[in-house]
Amino acid sequence: VYGVSREGTDNTQVVGHIEARTGRCVVFPNYMQHRVAPFQLADPTRPGHRKIICFFLINPQHSILSTANVPPQQESWIQRSLDSTFAGTLPEEALDSIRAMAGATTHDQAKDVMTQLMQERKGSDVFAKFLTEEVSLWYVVGPRRSRLHIYLMG
């Protein structure tokens, strides 16, 4: 791979750096794993904080699944919908069969899937020391400048 060296490096391709200025946003592709290093104010005697917001940008040229094409999957929503539509008109056994066929997900099941997905996306500590390249980004917290480290793995 072009730009990757085995001697004296983390065996990764350097992806560069960017200055994050007030009122702007740093965006990078979702296929890059990242880790934000601990935060410290430039002047610890003054108050300050860091906010990191994660959101996903969608290319309007590519079709994606959305709630316009996928029905609700929450068990509680399906329960309320069936009860309000068929309460008193269908036997409870029929409603139970419809609920079973709906393939609804409970809140606990959804949390388990989310936890599993987060574990899969989290970088392994064993590989992280070989596959990371530190990229320093600067951003402003109020009138102070503070340093933000993001580790991008390519």
Automatic annotation (TrEMBL):
<dbReference type="Pfam" id="PF14033">
    <property type="entry name" value="DUF4246"/>
</dbReference>
<protein>
    <recommendedName>
        <fullName>DUF4246 domain-containing protein</fullName>
    </recommendedName>
</protein>
<dbReference type="InterPro" id="IPR025340">
    <property type="entry name" value="DUF4246"/>
</dbReference>
<feature type="domain" description="DUF4246">
    <location>
        <begin position="1"/>
        <end position="80"/>
    </location>
</feature>
<dbReference type="InterPro" id="IPR049192">
    <property type="entry name" value="DUF4246_C"/>
</dbReference>
